[in-house]
């Protein structure tokens, strides 16, 4: 009976019989561990520094703290009232995700499948807009927000991410691969374009929707400038805005580090949950088809 060969990525079990392959694999593994350590080392340093007092932190001799007292973290949590700002950020992120998926997905579908007159010009303008720094449009955007009396609400944050050129391009490229026969069959049955989008295109677009959701959550959570201009000084301040005001107060460096640890916990959890989708999107971005 022929020996069954198992495939483990690019290297087969049979390849490990070669000494050169073994050495190369070990070197790659060591290099991967080194890169991983360099990536996670700042996070470990932040967490460990949060257990120190200001005297111990300024000494900067030991990496490990003298004591593991969680009371300091609890005190910083209570001092900032993080639960309230977590809730505000959750509202901001939730609305941003809905707008990012619906509006960008709808425009991407129209440009890909409906293709009305002038759609190529619109798509060209969208691609050109990717070359323009976002900060250049911040002043006119904020003026319009003030004129519409939307300062102090989440609506500008939701709509701004609902008009994201990068998301539109991702949606369009994905919809380009959907079979046109499905769209034509629905049109023969009398379905309108919006109905086809909601009942056919969206259910078939779960992979790209998951990716857009991940990007939207990360962008909405970490955004600072627009939330600071729109929500600064109101009861709807997000975590990032609260961190800025906390940093400008008389708090010591260790308390600021503890606050930073609380602010990065949700993105870390998000990455741990969706790391396979993130890696898959990176591969999909490099290989078309």
Short description:
The protein has 289 residues and is mostly helical. The chain has 14 helices and two strands; from the N terminus they run ββαααααααααααααα.
Structure notes:
This protein has 14 helices and 2 strands; from the N terminus they run ββαααααααααααααα. It is mostly helical and 289 residues long. The protein has 2 domains: 7-49; 74-286, MetI-like fold, CATH 1.10.3720. A two-stranded antiparallel sheet has the order 1-2. A hairpin with a 2-residue loop joins strand 1 and strand 2. The two termini are 38 Å apart.
- DSSP, total strands: 2
Number of continuous helical runs: 14
CATH class category of the largest domain: Mainly Alpha
Which class best fits the helix and strand makeup? mainly alpha
Overall domain count: 2
Weakly predicted, low-confidence segments: 1-7, 285-289
Distance between the termini: 38 Å
The share of residues in helices is: over 70%
Give the CA-based shape.
flat
Per CATH, which architecture of the largest domain? Orthogonal Bundle
The description of the largest β-sheet is: 2 strands, antiparallel
Rg estimate, integer Å = 25 Å
Strands of the widest sheet, in order across it, are: 1-2
């Amino acid at each position: 009976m022929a020996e069954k060969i198992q495939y483990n990525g690019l290297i087969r079990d049979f390849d490990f019989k070669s000494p050169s392959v073994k050495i190369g694999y070990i070197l790659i593994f060591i290099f991967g561990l080194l890169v991983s350590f360099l990536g996670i080392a700042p996070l470990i340093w932040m967490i460990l520094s949060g257990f120190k007092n200001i005297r111990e932190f300024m000494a900067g001799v030991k990496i490990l703290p003298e004591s593991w007292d969680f009371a300091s973290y609890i005190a910083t949590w209570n001092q900032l009232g993080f639960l309230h700002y977590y809730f505000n950020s959750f509202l901001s992120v939730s609305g941003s995700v809905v707008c990012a998926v619906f509006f960008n997905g709808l425009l991407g579908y129209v440009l890909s499948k409906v293709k009305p007159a002038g759609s190529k010009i619109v798509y060209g303008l969208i691609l050109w807009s990717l070359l323009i720094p976002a900060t250049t449009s911040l002043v006119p955007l904020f003026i319009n927000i003030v004129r519409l009396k939307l300062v102090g609400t989440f609506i500008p944050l939701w709509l701004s991410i609902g008009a994201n050129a990068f998301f539109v391009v991702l949606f369009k490229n994905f919809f380009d691969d959907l079979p046109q026969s499905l769209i034509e069959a629905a049109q023969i049955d009398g379905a309108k374009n919006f109905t086809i989008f909601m009942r056919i295109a969206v259910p078939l677009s779960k992979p790209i929707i998951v990716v857009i959701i991940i990007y939207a959550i990360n962008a909405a959570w970490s955004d600072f400038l627009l939330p600071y201009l729109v929500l600064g000084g109101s009861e709807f301040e997000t975590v990032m805005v609260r961190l800025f005001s906390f940093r400008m107060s008389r708090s010591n460096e260790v308390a600021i580090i503890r606050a930073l640890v609380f602010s990065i916990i949700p993105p870390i959890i998000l990455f741990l949950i969706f790391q396979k989708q993130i890696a898959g999107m990176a591969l999909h971005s490099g290989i078309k088809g």
